[in-house]
Design a protein that fits this description.
This protein is mainly alpha-helical. It contains 5 helices and 3 strands. The model has no long low-confidence stretch (mean pLDDT 94).
Length: 125
């Protein structure tokens, strides 16, 4: 990722995010996405675990005009995962990568990011 000028940012363990989540009665994943806010414009957002993070990114897109370059939304699980991915597929505003149903996870989201990098440049030595 660094060879393309990219960086990884994750706020899930940030103390301020935890405080915000508690104060607002939301998940840390949602609070993290809110904290990123407009910084998500032009970025690739990868979500492999928390459906609430994906729901929040989609809310930011719809209600606050945030425009990531792409959303890799592949949360895993039975509560909200399939619904969040369905909403992503129906968003019509931001390019996305997802899978249907309850399957997913961080390894699959990371694999999708790696696949995009290989499409850009498959000349790795």
């Amino acid at each position: 990722l660094a060879s393309f000028g990219g960086e990884v940012h994750c706020l899930i363990a940030d103390a301020e995010v935890a405080e915000q989540a508690k104060a607002e009665g939301i998940t840390r994943s949602m609070a993290a996405m809110r904290r990123f806010g407009k910084k998500l414009d032009g970025s690739i957002v990868a979500i492999g675990n928390a459906p609430t993070a994906l729901f929040e990114v989609l809310r930011l897109v719809r209600e606050e005009g945030v425009r990531p370059a792409c959303i890799v939304g592949i949360p895993v699980g039975f509560v909200g995962a399939a619904d969040s991915k369905k909403e992503l597929a129906e968003n019509g505003m931001v390019p996305y990568i997802t899978v249907e149903g309850t399957k997913g996870g961080s390894p699959i989201a990371a694999a999708a990011i790696n696949a995009m990098m290989y499409l850009i440049n498959n000349d790795r030595g």
